[in-house]
Every structure is written in structure tokens, then in C-alpha cells.
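Note to self: the last two entries modelled the partners one at a time, which told us nothing about the interface. This time every component goes in together.
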Amino acid sequence: MTTPLLDIEGVTKRFGGLVANREISFQVGRGELVGVIGPNGAGKSTLFDLLTGFLAPDAGHIRLDGVSIAGLRPDEISRRGVGRTFQKLKPFGGMTVLENVMVGAFQNTADPRQARAEAERALESVGLTDRAHAHARVLSTGQRKRLEMARALATRPRLLLLDEITGGVDQRGIPGLVELVRRLHADGTALIVIEHNMRVIMGISQRVVALHLGEVIAIGPPATVTSDARVIEAYLGRAYAG
Amino acid sequence: MTAEVLLQGIVSGLLMGLVYALIAAGLSLIFGLMEIVNFAHGEFLMVAMFTSYWAWALWRLDPLVSLPLTVCLLFVLGAATYWGLIRWILDAPMLAQIFATFGLAVFLRSAAQALWGVDFLVVKSPLAEGRISVGGLFLGLPQLVASVGSLAAFAGLHWFISRTETGLALQATAQDRQAASLMGIDTQRMFALGWGIGAACVGVAGALLSMFFYVFPEVGATFSLLAYVAVALGGFGNVPGTLVAGVVVGLVEVLGGLLIAPALKYAVVFAIYLVVVLWRPQGLFGRF
Amino acid sequence: MRSRLGSVAAWVLLGAALAFPLVFTLPYPRDVMIRIFLYAMLATAWNVLAGYCGQISLGHAVFFGTGAYTSTLLLQQDWLGGWASPWVGMALGALLAALLSQIIGYPVFRLRGHYFAIATIAVGEIVQTIVINWDAVGGARGLFVPIKRPDSLANFQFHESKQTYYYIALALLVLAIGISRGIVRSRTGYYFRAIREDQDAAAALGIPVARYKQRAMAISAALTALGGTFYAQYVFFIDPESVLPLSLSILVCLVAVLGGVGTLWGPILGAAILVPLGEVTRVQFGGTGKALDLVIYGLLIMIVSVVQPGGIMALLQRGSRRS
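The predicted structure of the combined assembly is written out below.
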């Protein structure tokens, strides 16, 4: 059995008296797409912050390709092949869309021309080529989400963490985003996707991890997890559980 | 260095510290409301000191007598600064915010210099004059009055903020601008009020300081830096915290001067700022 | 299209600048231009750290003073014997300034926003206070640059005419602009700007933020120090009041802010306006001239920050976009 790409074991994070993540354990294989669901406050974004170095775990192991990455800085983790988008979008507002993505592309080259070419490719794959020279701050929410993805993609990550990409996007935009994620997956990138939209999760995930109050309450194929009584109870309350 | 000199120094640092605390409280209040550092705070102090001086020079009014006048004038100055300048840069990039109040500071300082020259002016024979002896220690009466006055003003400020309806509205606006306005609080008025009160604090401090401190256009510079240090130590936006922080600054200043070198006393204060703010960025009491 | 017009304008201006002293032979106009070049250069250096990288330093005089004091002490104390040349001093000053900037940056860059700005003021004040009280480097009395005749490039001293000073100042400005331009187009420039826009997003893209901030600081400090040495060799006297004060730090910022922070031309525009403006107020208002030009500076800073924080460059770009 090959080493999983990402191995999370017993990860715990506390903020004072609040336990945001408690004993979280799961694995992500090479090229696998794992969905993460859970009501607000379940600890999903905290988990992303732990995986990408913005927070350090109080206990547990986080291993990328067998090597521990817990406690490394965000830029160090990024250079090891982990990319992410932020739930609260962070575009480089004063720079153009193309320049934004070039910042990502520069991780793999110091040559501005190569970075530019790579950035143009990334923009093409997310469908933002026609807005390449617009300033990032004038983009709509849906376009900003694509920009964040393109920027992360330009770093050529092995593992991409997407944080609620359909949030704030109108209904017409969602299928396009889903298609984009499917294509990324088909190209071989491993993905962890936080989502609230159940149909999206069902449609793209190979496995789903359900979090509630900082703990994992279910792991498995999408159909199994979303019909799990504990998951239903967590989202909708006891009245709706079987 | 005798124990007596040291004790004298500590008391004197304590007294000045209370004045620093009042100055810093105004600055902290403003920052808590809208996350803007008033780089012209020292110059507000300078204006207050000049007001007291001129009230004495022209009408023979003692600083303590003209204090209400000074406070009112500074309140107006603060509110006017909000209305004429700050209102436009509330959501501007930080660079713009820094430079707006910086520009005001430069403007006030050089206007004072252009109008009244660079001479060091002094109020002669104020009402509070001389020294009193308390248990072998000598306390200058003006300094004592100044620190008691500052403490009283500080207490008044704290009472106002935590016990009156307007004060609570001010706190609410500081914590969440949008929520406050949704509850019917006029945020623009709160901001103007905040600036007015912040300046009024400095008005009290300036009037008190003019009893025993030289008055000149550059006088605001040192005080404002000490105030920043006190605010940072106490935690930006944490008004009660500035009381302790102000006293700490006062003590460090005196002890630094006594134990290291008088010329370096401000350097010691700034060094302490750097140390604290690096070890605990939110200050001693702030919650980041 | 617009950038080609910009290049043409640049070459025309450069030509005019080169020809200027041949037309204007009196010392006064040359002196004004020299000061415009010097401030433009200092503002360009400040711009690398503050404009492109977004770290607003209000204590940059520290590096100016480092340059001035290093080269002057080298000459005075004759440490390197025969090697004591102002040019060596200039290089050494830049190196020391870069080093000092790393020492300062290490703690100070952990702070953000207002805290950072205040910390830079604090550092500036500490350094100035230390130098004032340090007799070995002249203390409050300052240092005189030993006069050497005849005029020579090797000695970096010219008493007969300001012409060579003019060309050196121009060369320094062109150097600063060249470096600035080179940075903007490179990966370093993109990384600087990303850090300015959003540090966390920058880190998530693999940028070692602290390392790049230090790099910006070092470049900015070294360039500023070059200006300090030039000043010492031009005025022949330095003291804490003239090369280390907060007012100098403010003035350098103002030049950049007025012209346009984060732009290549901004510092030049800012200097071209502020230096002559300072001259006009000084001439018009005689004794109180010093305070009055500061009054105007204060008003200008306020107006610019409220109306157009992007400075004159932003105004020009808005105008051209509309047409």
C-alpha cells in the first residue's frame, strides 16, 4: 500500500476553552477528491488553516507524503505542493487579474515571461482570459473565486484545498465551477473541498468527511455519509434524523 | 543613588504618568472607535497649552481657571477635525489615514511657530505653586495638582463611557459600527463625539501641564510619542488599560533617566515599547 | 501606446536634464536642481519599501544619516589610511545601512499597520538621541568634512562650480530609478506588491514574506545611504539635526506621497513640485519662511490624503483614462 498523499492523525486545536478541532484523523490519497461537510462552527476552516500553516496544531500529526508539515510556515507548505483558496476571498486588489495569477506562477520560475505564459494557461482553464487585464478589485464574487483558484493552480499544487467555492455565487455559475473542479481532478490533482452545497458534494466527491463541533462524525462515500443519522442530526436537528 | 532619590523619582514618575495616561486615553478612545491613530494628538496638546498660556498672558486667567475654556475649545477642535478631515478618510487606505493626521500635525505645529515663534513660554506664578512635603519627599504642588486633576478627568471619562447612555452608544459604535447604526445610533455623531472627547482629554492635560511646563510649538512631539507608547502598551482601544500603561511610561522615563542616563530617558521608553509590542503585540491588556 | 509616449517623454527629460547646467550656469538654479534630484532619489528609495512593498517607514532618515556619518567619519578618522576616499565611504555607508536595516527589520517587521509605522518613528528617535549623546561621532556638535583642494572627482569635492555635483546627483537618481524599474518588472517586484496587497494570500502562494520584506528594506536603505554621503560631500557639515531628524523622514514620504506612491514617476514629480515650492516660500516670507513652507506642506499632505491618496500620478491617470 502506497503512502497516502496527506495523512492527518489525531489533530487537535484549542482556542482558550474552545476546542475547534478534536482528534481529527483521515487520509487523502494521490489524486483523490475528498469533500468536507459540517454545519457552521464545525471547525472546517480551522482544519484548512492547520493544514496550510496558518495555525499550528496543539496535538496530532499532519504528514504530506510521509513528511511532517505541522508547524511549518504557510509559504513553506505551499512550496511543498499544497495550494488553497480562502473562504473570505483575498485578491490582490491593486494588481490585474493576470498579475495576480503570475504571483502564483512565480513559485516555479523566476522568469517573468514564463510566469506570464503559465498564468495565461491557468486563466484559460478557469475561463477568465477575457478579464486578464482588469484590476482584481472590480471582479464579481464568482470571478474572484475563479481568480483565487487560478492563482493557486498556477503554483502547480499536488493537493488543492478549496474553501466554499460556491458560496455567494448565483445558481447559473455553479455548474461551471463544478465542471472546473472535475477537470482539475481529472488532471490528477488531489483535492479537499469544503462545501455547504450538498448536491455539489455528492456530485464530485469520492469520499466525504463530516465534521460536527470539531470532531469527525462520519467518513465514507457521499451517499453513505449524507444519509448517516448523526450527520442529518448535526445539520438539521434530531427531528429530521431517522 | 540613594533610596531617597530613587523614591523621589518613583513618585515623580507616578505623578507624570497619570498625566500621560490622560493624554493616551484620548488617543485610545479615538482608535477604539475607528481604528485611526491620531498623529496630531501631541499638537492638540500643544494647542491646549498655548490656549492656557494666552488666557494667562492676555487676561491674567490662571490655567486652572481657564481650564473649562481650554477644554471646550479642544472639544470643538476635535469634533471639527473629524468633520473637516477624518470623515473623508474613514475607509481610505492606511497610508492615507496616517498621512491625513500627520499633515494636520505638521500644519498645527508650523502654524504655531509662524504665529508665535519658537521661544519657550512659561506661565508665571500660577495659583498652584511651590512644593509640599509629604513624609520626607518633596512634591511640586503644580505636578500634584496636575496628576490629581488627570486622575479625576480619567475617572470622569471612565464613568461617562461606562455609565451614561451616550457613553454606551460610543462603546457600541466602537465594537461594531454597522450593528450600532442598525440600532439607531448615529455613527457620524458618535465619531465626532469621540474625537471631541479625545481632544477634550488632551485639553485638560494641556491646561494642567501649562502650570509647570514650558509652552512652545514643538512641545507636542515628545508627548505624542510617549502617548503612542502608552496606548500600545495598554492595548489600542483599551481606555482603562492606558491608566496603568501611562503610569508605566512615566516610571520608565524617570527610572531610565536616573539609572541609565538623563539624555537617554526617551530612548529607554521607546526601547521598552519595542520590547513589549514584539513580545505581546496586543499590549499588556489588549485583546487583538 | 501610452508607455511609448512615456518612454519618449523620459528620454526628452533626460536630455533636458543633461543640457540644463550648460544653459543655466549660475550656482543657484543648479543647486535647486541638485536638491530636486536628491529628494527624488530618496523618495524613490523609500518607494521601494513603502510604495511597492507596502511597509510605511516613517524613520528613513536613519539610513540617510548612516550614509552621511559613515563616509564622513571615514575621512575624518582616516581609518583606512590611503583608502579613505568618499567613494569608498559611500559604498561602505550603503553596506552599513543595509545591515542596519536588517537588524531593525527583524523585530519591527513582525508588526503591521499603525504599529509598524510608530515603531519606525521610535527607532528613528532612538538613533537620533544616541548620536546626539555620542561624542565619538561628534554628538550634537556634528562633524565637518575635511576640505581638500583642488577640486577632484577622487576627493568628491568641488568648490569652483556645482556642475559635477549636478551630474553626480543626476546619475544617482538615474541609478535609483533604474533599480526601481528593474525590480518592478521582476519576480521580486511582483512578490513585493503581493505582500503589500495581502500578506496572508502571498504566503499561501509560497512567498517567504519576512525574507522579501527584509530584501525591500535593504535595497531601500542602501540607496538612501548613497544620498546621505552625497549630502555630506555637498554641504561639508553634518549633524543629527540635519541628517537624522523626523522632519527629514516626513519630507521624503511627502515627496513620494504627493507625486504618487508606488509609481516610478511619482517621486520625481513630487520633488519637482516641493523643492521649488520650498524655495518660493522661503524667498517670499523671509524670516518665518521655514515655518510657513511647513504650513503649506501640512495642508498639502492633508489635501492629498483626502482627495487623492494616489498622488499626482493617480490624478494624471484618471484624467487620461477619461480622455
